[in-house]
Specification:
Structural class: mainly alpha
Helix content: 55-70%
Oligomer: single chain
Order of helices and strands: HHHHHHHHHHHHHH
Radius of gyration: 20 Å
Shape: globular
Number of strands: 0
Number of domains: 1
Number of helices: 14
Largest sheet: none
Length: 357
């Protein structure tokens, strides 16, 4: 919105010419989202407290009784800061921006319904797993089809570290893209179990995908680095900047000991947004490297459930895997910081693939 208002004035006021640069608007979006989160955060926490929108604490597993009474649905803070900032600083005639806004809002609403049912009942019983999966898949399929029917769409799959191996998926791209979005959404959701655990890797992944979006949208840089050029994806860097700003603002209140939990309204939406960005810029597999922590959390649950059904025994003390380390005696802050460090290492590894192709 501000881009469309200010850029036409650049002829009369030269200073406004700066809004033409994606890098400037990415930074502005991050600062705007951060400011919104700082302003809205305290009254939102008080409002959620008055409404008794508190996170139900599981009776099994690590002792988290001290977290009882902490408001959840903090993802509302992130989404408000994120979406307002994106609308202010993005080029709103870019269809990919609206696709990203749509999936983020849709998954956010789904997560809100799940959180609302939990806090209303006072139990960890929200929407059934199959209900959530159905709506997640439906929304993701809609996004995948919208991307697939673009006349400039490239059906070749980009494989990290392998320059000349680009499988052509054809119509199979649609279920593959939908799976990427749904899987990453649920992986982020499973990671959101400790104060600050999910939002740190989300911001690291957003920074990495923002850089890749800018590169993919710049034909010369994309050609030099040997990645797919996708016209218009530079605008997604602005979305990533806003996500980082909103995430930092949320982390201010979510850092240990948390005043506010993210809830499904945040984790499902942010995971779905990151998955969609990867699909748009054709870096679906690389997202698995960047978000390796999320993949590890999801795989630990699959292994635990699958092995228990086969043998009646458990591989981990508890799943997702961050609870396994809690059971081993690791402090909550220790787990969180170490998972952040691993996320940074994985992001650097993913970026190194740009020159190793």
């Amino acid at each position: 919105m501000l881009y469309h208002l200010l850029y036409p004035l650049a002829g009369e006021f030269g200073a406004f010419n700066v809004v033409r640069y994606i890098t400037f608007r990415t930074g502005a979006a991050a600062l705007t989202a951060l400011f919104i989160a700082f302003v809205v955060g305290p009254p939102l926490i008080r409002a959620l407290g008055r409404l008794r929108a508190n996170q139900p604490i599981k009776e099994i597993g690590p002792a988290h009784e001290h977290k009882a009474g902490t408001p959840t649905m903090g993802g509302l803070l992130i989404l408000l800061a994120l979406l307002v900032s994106v609308l202010l600083w993005s080029e709103l005639d870019n269809r990919m921006v609206w696709i990203l806004i749509g999936i983020t809002t849709g998954y956010g609403l789904l997560g809100f319904m799940d959180d609302y049912m939990k806090v209303s009942s006072g139990k960890n019983d929200g929407l059934s797993a199959w209900t959530k999966l159905f709506w997640q898949t439906l929304l993701a399929m809609g996004v995948a089809i919208a991307i697939y029917i673009d006349p400039n769409f490239d059906q070749e799959l980009s494989v990290p570290f392998l320059k000349d191996f680009n499988p052509h998926l054809g119509i199979l791209y649609i279920p593959f893209a939908a799976f990427t979005i749904v899987a990453f959404s649920n992986a982020v959701n499973l990671t959101d179990g400790l104060d600050g655990l999910a939002i740190g890797p989300v911001m690291i992944a957003a920074a990495t995908m923002g850089l890749l979006s800018y590169v993919a949208g710049h034909s010369l840089i994309a050609d030099y680095l040997g990645i797919k050029y996708v016209a218009g994806t530079g605008q997604l860097a602005i979305f990533c900047g806003a996500l980082i700003g909103g995430g930092l603002g949320f982390l201010w209140f979510n850092a240990y000991p948390a005043q506010l939990f993210m809830g499904d309204v945040g984790s499902l939406a942010l995971g779905g947004a990151l998955g969609t960005i990867a699909v748009v810029i054709r870096q679906e597999i690389l997202l698995g490297v960047v978000g390796g922590i999320f993949v590890l959390e999801a795989v630990s649950v699959l292994i635990q459930v699958g092995w228990f059904k086969l043998t009646g025994n458990r591989v981990f003390l508890m799943a997702p895997i961050h609870h396994h380390y809690e059971q081993k005696g690791w402090a909550e802050q220790q787990i969180v910081v170490r998972f952040w460090i691993i996320s940074i290492i994985l992001a650097l590894l993913a970026l190194s693939s740009l020159k190793l192709r």
